[in-house]
Amino acid sequence: MTYHQAQVFINEGIFGILDHGEVPIESVDWSGSLIAPMSAGAMVRTGINTGNVRVEVYTWASAHSAEEWEEVATARVWSPTGSLRVESVVDGPRLDLPVLSTAGPGWYELEVKARGRGLSPDASVLESAEEYRVVLRSAPQVAAPAPAGRSRPTDSDERARRRRLLQG
């Protein structure tokens, strides 16, 4: 198991696991306390509002860890281009951390572990004691998510689709 770590600048209490820098914010699901999945990638909620946190990225990890974490969350995330990276919403991608979606485009299981989120809630601190571990694993393939605002897949035969629309 190998890992990389870096300080990530936080603004507005989040950092991203973003695909090619895209932030489909209109699709974000804020219902989780730690991970907020989007139609591509996800946002990770932090305790602080502004400052730096330590993020570890594991390129391979077993499901169990001997270390203790205060919070653990998982979510399925979509990577349309296969370029999921840890990103600061202000500074962009952390190029000193590896691309997470090593299997290319597709679905992944994102696991985020956190500790220290309650130490300085909503504060602005230069160096926070918060720590995050990010692990991404390939997930079984299913269809790509529909674009935001679309409830069913696109019809490949445009004339048939128009006929159905006209028939009511």
Characteristics of this structure?
10 strands, mainly beta, five-stranded mixed β-sheet, 168 residues, five-stranded antiparallel β-sheet
* Class per helix and strand makeup: mainly beta
Distance between the termini: 57 Å
**Mean pLDDT over the full residue set:** 87
Number of helices: 1
Which term fits the overall shape? globular
Helical content, roughly?
Answer: under 10%
N to C succession of SSEs: EEEEEEEEEEH
| Major pleated sheet | 5 strands, mixed
Instruction: Name the beta content range.
Output: 35-45%
Low-confidence stretches: 149-155
Radius of gyration, Cα only, in angstroms?
Answer: 18 Å
Q: How many strands in all?
A: 10
Strand order in space, largest sheet: 1-5-10-9-6
Question: What is the fold's blueprint, element by element?
Answer:
Layout: E1 3-10, E2 14-19, E3 35-37, E4 42-45, E5 50-58, E6 71-79, E7 84-88, E8 92-93, E9 106-115, E10 124-138, H1 158-167
Parallel strand pairs: 5-10
Antiparallel strand pairs: 1-5, 2-4, 2-7, 3-4, 6-9, 7-8, 9-10
